[in-house]
């Protein structure tokens, strides 16, 4: 797994690595270092496919290229297995923050599902506190190196389970101790957001920001549920919103389209799409449009004025970084620094932070790109 690799913009040679970035959709259990997995597995007697770090990183990437979200999710059985102790959770969270900073991220939201980390006797409160301890240690290490980063937890409920109300209560309980929002994740098809209406009602009463995985492994009905039942401010992936965009005709200079009601609503309300290009290819989320990055409807949505953001989803499984995702998109669609800045500004405006803090993020991004 390549944690630090320099990517340059075509022509000008500006390093994408050093540009200030905002990461909105990044799973804690999808961003472990292979060597850390090996060491943590050894400490608890968990058997891995291999104990060579490079080979293990390749194993995760190979297993994740199944073209199915269900198959893709099976790799998390390994990562969550080594995240069942205070030490494991704190270490993974600390290293996660350090790796984000090495990728040029100045603000990141880390999403993870506390209910998946109770196998060795920890309570929900204890796992949240362990992760927060690791986050704070990571921030401290980043600051020692002369850089800065801010991190918020997105507490996630598993949509195929029945603990969402309890997890929503957990998120509210820790909203001033590191938690900035709520999410539901896991197998999407067959598990609509409406199943978790009680949790979303609680979150709405408490004015807790919500993002919902939708439009990845399921289509427009799932997105409708995220908007109606979840009151989502952002769509986790949301790539299949493009199913509600009809291309009427094209000529050499223009593409004429019609937006369906769901797409029209999302665009007109400037609801943010947390797109993850490499992951979307791996899970088959964009199979209706093709198998290459150039086929991804990212550019279509961007050109139509949707609030698109760029994310990694799971850095280990996709063997990627936010820098790499931006470089891949730049290569596929010819984006320049102005486009990349727009993606970061979109993310900054959509962060689950107070307005004043978002304005500071915007200023930091504009300054960083202005100096590039």
TrEMBL record:
SUPFAM superfamilies reported in the protein's UniProt record: Metallo-dependent hydrolases
Keywords associated with the record: Hydrolase, Metal-binding, Nucleotide metabolism, Zinc
Coiled-coil intervals: none
Cofactor requirement: Zn(2+)
E.C. designation(s): 3.5.4.4
Family: Belongs to the metallo-dependent hydrolases superfamily. Adenosine and AMP deaminases family.
Family matches, as NCBIfam families: PRK09358.1-2
Protein name in the entry: adenosine deaminase
Organism: Cryobacterium luteum
Lineage start: Bacteria, Bacillati, Actinomycetota, Actinomycetes, Micrococcales
